[in-house]
C-alpha cells in the first residue's frame, strides 16, 4: 500500500467528466491523501510541468490539436523528473509503445480503470521515478568527478582505443577530446618495453596499478606519468577498461631541482674545505720557493726549477679562486629583457667557435619579443656554456646546431639541439654536477654554473640525449608580466 503522505496530482484532460471519474477513484484509495488539480489545455499543461509543482501527471492522449505524445516530448525538453502517465480511450499497442519510448512512466486505458489499478499505477510510477532520480543523481555526481578531475580519466576497449576521455586527458595528449576517440593510448607511449608490459597485463586480464610511464603528446612534449587501469568485464557486450593517468612531471622536476641543489650545496662545502686546507700548505710552498731563490741566489737550472714551483703555485691558487667563485651565491640584477636578444648575444659569443668548426646554424625565433625577468649578463654566460658544449660535441663540417625560441602554454621555451656524439644515459643525471666532465682538459664547471644561473632565474631544464644522435637542452622560462 502507499505510505500515508500527501500526493499532488495534475490531471491533464480536455474532458471534465474524465477528471471527475479519476478523482472519484482516487478518493477510494485508503491511507493516502491526494490533492487533485485539473488542466484542460496543452499550453497550460506545459507551464504546470515546467513549474514542477505536482508529484505525478495523468495526461490524456487527445489534447485538442496536440496529443499526449507531444506533451511528453515537451516534458523531456523541460527535463522534468516527475512521472507522467498516459491516458488512452482504447487499447492501442502502437500508441502505448510510442508513449513508453517518449518517456511515459506508464499508461492506462480509461475504460479499464478502477481504484485498484490506479493505486498500483501511482505506486509503481512514483517508485520508478524515485529510482530514476537516484540513478541520475549518482550519474551526475560521477560525471562531475569525471569531467572535473585534474587527473586524466578515460574509458577504453582492451586495446586501449579511447571510448571517452575527460578534458584533462585531452589537455595531456594535446588533442581535441572528440579526436581522441579514434586513437589508442599506445599511440602516446614511445617506450616499446612499457607498451609490451601493458599489453601483457591486459591479455592476462590483470589490472595495472601505478605504473610509471612517459607520455609523448602531439606537440612532441614528454610528460612523466603514473598509469592505473581497472578492467570491467561484461557478460554482454564489449569489455571495457577504466584508466587514470596522473601527471607527475612537475613533481619529477621539483625532485630533480632539489637533488641538484643538494649536490651543489654539498660541493660548495667541500670546495671551501679543500680550498682552506690546500691554500695553507700552498702558501708555505710559495714562500719557501721565494726564500730559496733569494738564499741560493739561484741561477741556471736551479732558477728554472724554482720558477716552475712559483708558476704552478700561482696557477693552483688561481684554480682555487675559480672554484670558490663558481660556488658563490649569485648576486643578480633582474630586469625585463627579450629572450631572443639574450640568445642572439650568446650565439654571438660562440660565433667564432661555430665558424671555426664550420657548424651549420639553424635559428627559429618567434618574431615578436618574448620578455622575461633576467640578469642579462649572467643568462648570456649560461646560454654560452651550453652552446659551446654543443659545438665541441660535433664533428667539423658535419655539425648542425638548431636553436629555437617559442611560446609554450605556460612558459617561453628555448631549445638548443646538436647532432653531436650525445651523452650516455648513465651520465645524463651527472652532467650538471661540479667537476663532472667527459672532456680531456675540462674542469666540469661550465654546465654546473649554467644550471645555477638557470635555477636562479626559476627556469626549468630538460636534457634529452642519445649516443651518436646528439643532445637537446630544453629551457622553460616564466612569462614576464606585461
What does this structure look like?
This protein is 46% helix and 23% strand. With 482 residues, it is of the alpha/beta class. The chain folds into four domains: 6-146, Rossmann fold (3-Layer(aba) Sandwich); 149-247, PAS domain (Beta-Lactamase); 252-327, Signal transduction histidine kinase, dimerisation/phosphotransfer (DHp) domain (Helix Hairpins, Orthogonal Bundle); 335-477, 2-Layer Sandwich (Heat Shock Protein 90), CATH 3.30.565.10. Helix 13 (376-392) packs antiparallel against helix 15 (446-456). The longest helix is centred in the middle third of the chain and has 47 residues, at 249-295.
> Largest sheet, order of strands side by side?
2-1-3-6-7
Mind describing the biggest β-sheet?
A: 5 strands, parallel
Evaluate the radius of gyration.
Answer: 39 Å
- Secondary structure class reads alpha/beta
Q: What is the second-level CATH architecture of the largest domain?
A: 2-Layer Sandwich
* Residues in helices, as a percent range: 40-55%
CATH-defined superfamily of the largest domain: Histidine kinase-like ATPase, C-terminal domain
What best-fitting shape do the alpha-carbon axes yield?
Answer: rod-shaped
CA(first)-CA(last) distance: 71 Å
Number of DSSP helical runs: 15
How many domains?
Answer: 4
The fold-level CATH name of the largest domain is: Heat Shock Protein 90
The share of residues in extended strands comes to 15-25%
Quaternary: single chain
Low-confidence region ranges? none
Give the overall average pLDDT. 83
> Using DSSP, what is the number of strands?
19
